[in-house]
Design a protein that fits this description.
single chain, mainly alpha, 2 domains, two-stranded parallel sheet, 5 helices, 2 strands, 41% helix, 7% strand, extended
Length: 120
């Protein structure tokens, strides 16, 4: 039986986030090489997480693709992904030549678990 649910609104932006974007757009310095907002963000993120480096990327799809390539994932590899995710979760696996393998999700959380991943 399918139980209908109300999905949360997405995306949700807070007032301070909107103000930060507005400030960058109004500055006219919207590029990495003309403005400082991106480098400032990278530095703050790295400091907040005690990291040595931080590299911001344009979106989650590029980020997942880069992570898979850095790990050497490619032809002949299989990557377990959740079927209850944005399409990019599986597409980035396929685009680097690997095979996405879908694991079931937990009925309570709606998330893939170690047990559901182990089953595949």
């Amino acid at each position: 039986m399918v139980t209908p649910t109300t999905l949360a609104a997405w995306p949700v932006f807070e007032t301070d986030e909107l103000a930060a974007v507005d400030a960058v757009l109004r500055s006219g310095r919207v590029n990495y090489w003309t403005g400082t907002a991106c480098r400032d963000f990278e530095r703050a993120w790295s400091d907040a997480h005690q990291g040595m480096h931080c590299l911001s990327m344009a979106n989650g799809s590029l980020t997942m693709d880069a992570a898979l390539r850095v790990l050497g994932i490619g032809a002949g590899d299989e990557v377990i992904v959740s079927p209850r995710s944005y399409v990019a979760s599986a597409m980035c696996v396929a685009l680097c030549g690997a095979t996405p393998v879908f694991a079931d999700v937990d009925l309570e959380s709606g998330c893939m678990t170690a047990d559901t991943a182990e089953a595949v």
